[in-house]
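check these tokens.
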Amino acid sequence: MNRQNSRLSQTVGFLLLPGFALMSYASATEPLRAANLLAGQSLYDVETLSLDGAPVASSSGAIVPCRRMDQSRLDTIFVCAGGNPSILGSPALYTALRQFSRSGARIGGISGGPYILAAAGLLDGRDFTVHWEHAAALKEAFPNLKPRQARFVLDGNRITCGGGVAPLDMMHALIADRMGADFARRVSDWYLHTAVAEPTAPQRASAAERFGVNHPVLLNVLAKIEAAIEQPLDRAQIAAYVGVSTRNLDRLFSEHLKAGYTEVCRNFRLVHARRLLQQSPLSISEIAFATGFSSAAHFSRCYSAFFGKSPKRDRR
């Protein structure tokens, strides 16, 4: 019998990396605890792990006790990471994860965890997701990988999740696959989680909510700008794309955003650059070119004017 579908207890490990999000961790582990209570038996043995067995601090400062990862036999292991996952990996960690994969364990990543799986070579040729905040850094570091903006993705023995409260949805799906939809619903009801989202549901609010506008043409323009950070489109190109004149395009930006097209595009690129600065190992010059600036000096001037601090200072 496949141990993943066995009615016997499954061991699920959560590898915590420094700065992991406590909400993501709780959203993933609590449904397993509730499943045990509702079943009246141990369906899931949850182990909280670190590489060396030392306690790990979350992003909020909460300290969580852990066991050594290499002392566990696991059916599934989730890597929980946040902050800047590009600096959290190590050869020892990648080797350990690959060993778990070879042993037949399912490998998962939560929030920034998929970045670690990508660095370990465990997402090559896989369908996966990552928290939207880490997507830019992951795509820059691993150009051959294309994360989906889904809440969670189940691809065989790879499980990835955007983090936050999305693990509640993911665990509902995993528990339903093993114990049936009715039992999974009882677990979700335990946490008043009555609106279980589909895997493909978006991670972020709608464009109208994020940008604070409702004009359909302008929303289309802003979405296009957001998708073309590395190779910004000029006014004529974007106007042709949405089927309006450049004059009408300028009017839309002035009326609804109180700013010009060039300024809005630059602000998008600077916000994107800040994520790369904080979450990727790219140099400042590399980030400048990756976000469409002609030189590192021009990028630094624009960045300092927008954020009130230089890129170098912000990275420190």
